[in-house]
Amino acid sequence: MILRCRQFEFTFPRPALIMGVVNVTPDSFSDGGKFLEPSAAVAHALRLIDEGADLIDVGGESTRPQAAPVSEKEEWRRVAPVIQRLAGELKIPISIDTIKPAVARAALQAGASSVNDVAAHRRDSEMWHVVAEAGAGYVITHTKGTPQTMQQKAAYKAVVAEVHDFFSERLGQLNAFGIQRERIILDVGIGFAKTAEHNLQLLGALNSFGKLSRPMVLGASRKSFSGQVTGAAGAEDRLPGSLACACWAIEHGANIVRAHDVAATRQAVRMAEAILARKK
Question: Is 223 labeled as catalytic in the residue annotation?
């Protein structure tokens, strides 16, 4: 299985990739405000790479539940100097975490390699044209509604089947728009229009999505459902739960782990991989 993101190519099976999170926002649930200044965000990205990040995911608008939307102009103002600086220095892929086609286009022109789109359920096609024209990678994240409404839409008859059907439909549609399968990554959308029970069901059935023959990214790092399950109230207290999800995901078919805590996640994932290699 091959993943292509512009000039970068990965062939699976291989050791799982670690995607480091850089939030250039004042209100992200975990680290909002810490890296709002471009110099702080760049320094954080470089630190994550030193810790072993294989990709960097840069976002300028929080997508946590109830987060206030920001304008296209403001989002690009936040991320532009970060992406421009990193693209000039890094030899690993940069992902732009955005739902806005114009921001995605500008980021790709500035040197980003892929688009992490938590509005992949969209009906308009502008984002898909942007991705296709750039030959970029594209993360399909399952959700419903918007950050302001998604938790009110967390209702499913069978969440695993519905997410699987969404991916199948979207893969065909994206191919029609010129986004080849080898450029697509799947994200079941932990915490996006999901209750804690929905998240657990998706994690429990993660290997069922392997039938779609696309790399999967797990984005469970520090998310509130972990606290709901374990009692860890603050985002900074949820590392153990995040690592448990990462190791489980690797055992059940995930290829990329999106993480705030890169060093700890990489160490846990590599240990899980070493055990799995000897399981037979």
Answer: yes
